[in-house]
Amino acid sequence: IETYKMAILSGRTIDLNASAMAGICMRLCWLYRGSGNIEEEKRFMKVAADFYEKAYEIGGAYGEDAVKPEIIVYLLGELSFRLGNNKDATKWFSLAISKYACDPNVKRKTADMIRDRWLDIKDQVKGE
Predict the structure, then answer these.
(1) Are the C-beta atoms of 52 and 86 separated by less than 8 Å?
(2) How many C-alpha atoms does 85 have within 13 Å on its Cβ side?
(3) Contact, 85 vs 79, CB < 8 A?
């Protein structure tokens, strides 16, 4: 946990791109989830979501290891849902479905993942 927190500080110092910063925050979320610290997990989910939103707005990072926009949108929808923000989750998954799930350039596995998760979330929201 301390190592990832130092990575975040270092990333901010060297102006690391937003999607890489979001990835660091996501790893920190998983560590907090594993330790049972839900409050910190959610705090870093929010930070990750903010970085992913910034990455999506500016076009993410480019190169072989860049996070694809359809994955960023999917993660924004998932993080919004996990944070209890169903309105934003709906916005991001609607964008993912309309723009990326039908795009022939998007891998079929990714498009199926987006559709399947959106159906799960819709069912959960309906059940509440």
Answers:
(1) no
(2) 15
(3) no
In tens, the pLDDT along 7-17 reads 999 999 999 99
Residue pair 31/1 in contact (Cβ under 8 Å)? The answer is yes
User: Within a 10 A sphere around the Cβ of 83, how many other Cβ atoms?
Assistant: 14
Q: Concatenated DSSP letters for 69-84?
A: HHHHHHHHHHHHHHTT
First to last CA, the chain: 34
Is the CB of residue 113 less than 8 Å from the CB of residue 74?
yes
At 9, list the tokens.
């500080």
| Cα 32 from Cα 114, distance rounded (Å) | 25
Summarised one tens digit per residue, pLDDT across range 95-119 is: 998 888 788 888 888 888 899 998 9
Distance of CA 49 to the CA centre of its chain: 6
